[in-house]
Automatic annotation (TrEMBL):
Superkingdom of the source species: Bacteria
Source species: Anaerococcus hydrogenalis ACS-025-V-Sch4
Gene Ontology molecular function, alphabetical: magnesium ion binding; ribulose-bisphosphate carboxylase activity
Organism placement in taxonomy: Bacteria, Bacillati, Bacillota, Tissierellia, Tissierellales
Name recorded for this polypeptide: 2,3-diketo-5-methylthiopentyl-1-phosphate enolase domain protein
Residues covered by the Ribulose bisphosphate carboxylase large subunit C-terminal domain: 1-76
Length: 82
């Protein structure tokens, strides 16, 4: 199983899923611990990003309904390599 680590954050999740598929492991450390509202919000933001990407929902659309994801994307941005 491919495992992506180092620089993994909610804004890059769609790129990884698009390039590697859904059967991957995302080792998000700094993006979880570094969320300004704490680690719990960091986990929520990652889950929100993963669920959105798996459903084909654009992150800019998803962030409108998820405050944790929105705040994370303010910090880390959205990867534009899709």
């Amino acid at each position: 199983m491919p495992c992506c680590g180092g620089g993994v954050n909610p804004g890059i999740v769609p790129t990884y899923i698009n390039q590697l598929g859904k059967d991957i492991m995302l080792a998000a450390g700094g993006a979880v611990q570094g969320h300004p509202d704490g680690a719990e919000s960091g986990v929520k933001a990652m889950i929100q990003s993963i669920e959105s990407a798996c459903q084909g929902i654009d992150l800019n659309e998803a962030r409108k309904n998820h405050k944790e994801l929105d705040k994370a994307l303010e910090i880390w941005g959205i990867d534009d390599r899709l």
